[in-house]
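Entry 0007
Protein: Putative protease
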Amino acid sequence: MALLPHQIELLAPARDADIGIEAVNHGADAVYIGGPSFGARAAADNPVSEIERLVKHAHRFHARVFVTLNTILRDDELEPARRLVHELWNAGVDALIIQDMGLLELDLPPIELHASTQCDIRTPEKARFLQDVGLSQLVLARELTLEQIAAVRAATDSARSTLEFFIHGALCVAYSGQCYISEAHTGRSANRGDCSQACRLPYQVLDAQGRFVAHDQHVLSMKDNNQSANLEALIDAGIRSFKIEGRYKDMGYVKNITAHYRGLLDGLLEARTDLARASDGRCRFSFTPDPNQNFNRAFTDYFVRGRQADIGAFDTPKNAGQPMGWVARATAEFFEFEADDPTLELHNGDGLCYFDAQQELMGAQINRAERAGPNGLWRAWPKDPMSSLRDLRRGTRIHRNRDMAWVRALEKKSAERRIGVWMRLGETPHAEGLSLLLTDEAGHEARAELPLPYAAPRDDAPAAEALRAQLARLGETIFEPIDIRLDLPRPWFVPPSQLNRLRRDAIAALEATRAAAWTRPLRAAPVEPPVAYPEDTLSYLANVYNHKARDFYARHGVKLIAAAFESHEEEGEVSLMITKHCVRYSLSLCPKQAKGVTGVQGTVRAEPLTLQHGNERLTLRFDCKPCEMHVVGRLKPRVRAAARELPLQFYRTRPSR
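Output (structure tokens):
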């Protein structure tokens, strides 16, 4: 069912169907997953049959399943994509997440369409346009502030479009859909799900005179997103779908992070009677969720509360984990460390790490660990020789980035999700027998009857208790009793096998009722006549890679439509990345930071900087009016030459050569 304006949706990622099922079990109201092709995570594809298995499980809780079809498509891919969409519709999928507007020109089933983060929705005008062409859920740019989100909500209709926002996980430094470094340098397009992640590399940063500003720093690598403290503010700004990043992430990550935000959102919903959950059932966990236990590059809330200086993971893009203690002694075979917390437990297989003298993160997997004394002193024998652990000496700070006890706990069953039901046992009206009526917490009802001659029990009180106890045994079903009422003149004796059958029949009937009540949202009708796109000229930044996308924009009033960067028509230097992150600002070299500083004001200018990694050089240019940074470069000749060898069909504005 479509999300209502007062409903709050927790949207979790799934690399595969099994992870998606556990996301639902751990509290997700919706799950997004890649299909067999055309998803923006090329290594996270799934067959339609597996997606259908996830759909069947999710719909039991009235949770939704979205499939990502959010790459830009060549002309020769449009027909396979159209056929795939029909397969997904027939499999019960609730919505598609798309980037390519060419899909709107195809003969698709009436499936609901959502605008991917790759659509780069930063302005109220663009959000309104996408709503008006029939997209029902809009994933806003991660870079928006609360005020900007509220402006988007004010410009759109909450009855026609839901605003979605990433609340956790890895951050792409570029505006989504606006990064072409991977395509330019390797021929692997980020807009086609195959990013080479140049943003995670170390760079030398040089100023206009060639002087070093930073040495071997990961200046384009962001910390990880964590909006735990901003959920209510985001709700008040207009967000209704809260999205967790991570279609490459493992089962433990999805279980833990979904459970973490489920708890936070449930706390808000209990306090806010104006809001409601988007699916049915409540979760119980066998662990205490903790985002710090999963891979992270430290956390930031990015731009939600305005520009912050400390948003980068400049030292390393790896997971340093949580600080644990200090090395007390290092020998040729083992090392000892004093834990900050005397109650800390170390386990065989734990992953420890530290920064060496060059601030490079070094890993030390523990083969064996044992207590070496009181007050948290531990002795650890690493898997690798001590001689390979560079600069591990007394006084080194030790972190743990993998806790095997935590890992093993999440490898087991770690959650139960149950829908509450009221159960009423009464007599059948026309003949001897019993009737069991079930009403779930969403108001769905189902009844089952059992023909049975009435037999008096020896003692009414224990008989009544036995009936209640037997009815309460909902076992491995998705239901749990809220209240059990006996509407009987007296608690008749019922053989347990007969009562079990009655209960099973009633549960099956309730599941059937819930399934029949579930209706998929349909694709929203576009506004007629077609609304005008906010601009009448589109550059390569619009990612138009097929003729249907070109026709779409032309139909909406665009006069000049350039081909996507992947068409290789941009021959000179262009912006290969546009980002709200500013290297000058993060290195305290921004002219605005110098305002009012005696002796500095007027001497710091937003001159270009150069990034260098090996033989690769990129130019950083700064557009201070919108406070954005452009990473400038050009397409490698070898990439252009390799592409010419392939017989591909895509949108061009110039004759192919």
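Curator remark: The radius of gyration is 29 Å. The mean pLDDT is 95.
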